């Protein structure tokens, strides 16, 4: 390395912005990921409740139109158990790309954009403000785990962050077909949470 390139690389590293602080856990990168980050004028406790209250998803969520906790066989759990707990399963009905905002419980799906997925709740860490679920794939060619984290932003607002990393031989195909729609879904859900909690 010449002295000039050394000086250049040092000055570039000094100029690069400090990474925004995050409450998402570090995970190995995959083939691609979908993510969202938004500051919301609410408390972390209210944000946590909105994220974990699966029963209310149809009322506000343009991406995950319904989320039902089930036992390992896919049998729905009682209403009192429609909250995350490790090793519960989740049956999702999603729209990729998401529906336009706003949505409510009677907003019809676009059938051409409907997908379902069956997930395992892998981590529930209320003390850390973190929850995660992972796709139960029929084969091992696709792995996808979504972490969601709540924290307090530097501004004092509540910070919502969510990221799903996709791995495996099928991840490239998934990215080509749905990469953009999934990213729109994450962003749509984040904006919908903001509207829900800021009362818009
Ligand atoms: C997510 O994707 C972005 C953009 O491609 C990349 O910079 C980042 O490292 C990825 N993160 C993970 C955990 O995969
Ligand atoms: C969860 O959502 C349901 C459906 O909107 C609502 O009736 C219930 O009060 C919510 N629970 C909490 C603790 O917010
Ligand atoms: C629910 O959303 C639909 C559009 O998706 C709208 O036509 C309807 O008026 C909304 N209903 C209520 C009660 O806001
Ligand atoms: C579901 O997640 C729990 C908690 O991380 C784990 O113990 C269990 O092995 C997982 N089950 C499956 C089928 O992946």
Automatic annotation (TrEMBL):
The keyword Signal applies. InterPro entries: START-like_dom_sf. SUPFAM superfamilies: Bet v1-like. CDD domains: SRPBCC_4. The keyword Signal applies. Residues 1-20 form the signal peptide. Keywords: Signal. This is Coenzyme Q-binding protein COQ10 START domain-containing protein.
